[in-house]
Give the backbone structure.
Amino acid sequence: MTDTILVPFELPDHKALSPVLVDDLASLDVVVLGHFAVPEQTPVEAAREQFEAEAQATLDEIADRFRDAGATARTRLVFGKQRAATIDRVMIEEDCAAELNPAPTDGIDRILVPVPAVDNFDRLPRFVDILCEDSTGEITLFHVAEGEESRAAAETIVAETSERMRDAGFAADAVDTLVVEGDSHDTEILAVAADYDAVVMYAAESGLSDHIFGSLPDRIGDETGDPVIVVRRDYHPSATD
């Protein structure tokens, strides 16, 4: 069964999609979502009536690029005021395994993979593999030892994850590990992500900071300009996750 990935665009002024990412996602079922941001004082139906044809043409053009690369692609167009809620809803309705936060890129040489403190998961390695190219030289499994978690426990997490990556077919010399100790999981990931070309990570529980500063994947994309793939959980979160 082919995995489905959601690729959302903010309309009417969407960011250009890199040909590299189009090619990387060619093996997937792609849902191209256009969220047309309606100003607070504007009725949604009025915006739809005025801009729907143009917005749909834009989405069709993007979807055709994926189809030309070999992907199966379909479109969803939503006029509204709540982008995050729209993405969450469409992810569920379309049974998407992951979401791409797109960004322009010429190539992906280094991929950062923040890993959670869980015993087992299956979906993450698949999406790391999707972004890997001939030029990709390093995949770094990253974990933040936060709060009462010991560094030794964190080292065990990345070591066991590295072993599972090898079991999934990754070469041992392609997978590196990195552990840091810090008070803020998000802050440490943002600092490290700046040194990489792309990030593949599991979705985290939404918190108060997301509503104030935006979600962590959005902040990574905004601060680094790099693509981020957010993978839906296929594990049971721990108490500290």
